[in-house]
Design a protein that fits this description.
about 20% strand; five-stranded antiparallel beta sheet; Phosphorylase Kinase, domain 1; alpha+beta; two-stranded antiparallel ribbon
Length: about 325
């Protein structure tokens, strides 16, 4: 009898403690268990993505890319392979470099899409400054196209769809992100099977608050890579997100033709030809008439005539649906 009283008293005591600690008890056939009260997710802040540099292991690292401000290395973070963009020590105190670095970090924190390279964290409190993203084993599209010497239409359409999906997400209003340097080197393959692409490198990107869908942003200057540059950028005229559509057309051309647009000209000369109204010639038999038409619309001289990426997606899906389904249309074929 006494033991039963203690048991009851202990049970009451436990329940009283649980109420005071906001803990719920579930009584069931499998016995009672404690479940903590649901905690709301924390608001995003710097602590969520600031990485202690001691967590990065560079013992087996290798350089996978270089730029004027730093280098990109394959490293390990908490046992996971990652890509680390590391600012050169000599530039760690450069005000403009730091400003650009912080701009890229603040931009990447906002991005979440299957066709956009995923930001994982950054080192901003210590030097050298570092930006950490997922590591994609397939390398970049530039190298892949160099090795393949051109893709068949089936592969090119699938690649184009992945790029367009990522860009449609970035161009979503009212917070539009203009990439401004869309080119094969900044498009990455998830793996060596080349079955999935992601858009990366947002060092030159701009986040623009759009008041209405017809806004033209007051940005000028030769921003980006000459060979894929829209004519309005080369001419230092006002431009909008359609500069990325132009660059997309040049990439689509390169995927099928197997060589960069105006490959027999230096990049600056190629951009000058484009600004004068010239466009590369279609030669490959893999260039379906529908794809030629889409490419022509995307690199139109008048940026207002270029389709949006949502429209491009619809066109590509339709072209894919109507394309031949012969077994020889292998995605890895040339």
């Amino acid at each position: 009898m006494l033991s039963k009283l203690y048991h009851i008293r202990d049970g009451c005591l436990i329940r009283m403690l649980c109420v005071s600690l906001s803990i719920r008890i579930d009584d069931g056939q499998n016995g009672s268990h404690f479940e903590p009260k649901p905690v709301p997710p924390p608001l995003p802040n710097k602590c969520d993505w600031e990485v202690d540099p001691s967590e990065l292991d560079f013992s087996n690292s290798n350089i996978i890319g270089k730029g004027s401000f730093g280098e990109i290395l394959r490293a390990s973070w908490r046992g996971t392979p990652v890509a680390v963009k590391r600012i050169l020590p000599s530039l760690s105190d450069d005000r403009l470099v730091i400003q650009d670095f912080r701009h890229e970090v603040n931009l990447l924190v906002k991005l979440r899409h299957p066709n956009v390279v995923q930001f994982l964290g950054a080192v901003t409190d210590k030097k050298p400054l570092m930006l950490i993203t997922e590591y994609l084993r397939g390398g970049d599209l530039h190298q892949y196209l160099k090795e393949k010497n051109g893709l068949n239409s089936s592969a090119a359409i699938n690649f184009a769809l992945d790029i367009a999906r990522g860009m449609a997400y970035l161009h979503n209003e009212p917070n539009v992100i203009i990439h401004r340097d869309l080119k094969p080197r900044n498009v990455l393959l998830v793996n060596s099977s080349a079955d999935h692409l992601k858009v990366g490198d947002f060092g030159l990107s701009k986040l623009i608050k759009v008041q209405n869908s017809h806004d033209v942003y007051k940005m000028t200057g030769e921003t980006g890579s000459y060979r894929y540059m829209a004519p309005e950028v080369f001419k230092h005229r006002k431009y909008d997100k359609k500069v990325d559509v132009f660059s997309f057309a040049m990439i689509l051309y390169e995927m099928i033709e197997g060589e960069p647009p105006f490959s027999n000209h230096e990049p600056y000369e190629a951009a000058k030809l484009v600004a004068e109204g010239h466009r590369p010639n279609f030669r490959s038999k893999s260039f379906l008439p529908e794809l030629r038409d889409l490419t022509g619309k995307c690199w139109a001289s008048d940026m207002n005539q270029r389709p949006s990426f949502l429209e491009i997606l619809k066109r590509l899906e339709k072209i894919k649906g109507n394309a031949p389904s012969d077994s020889h249309w292998n995605i890895f074929g040339s």
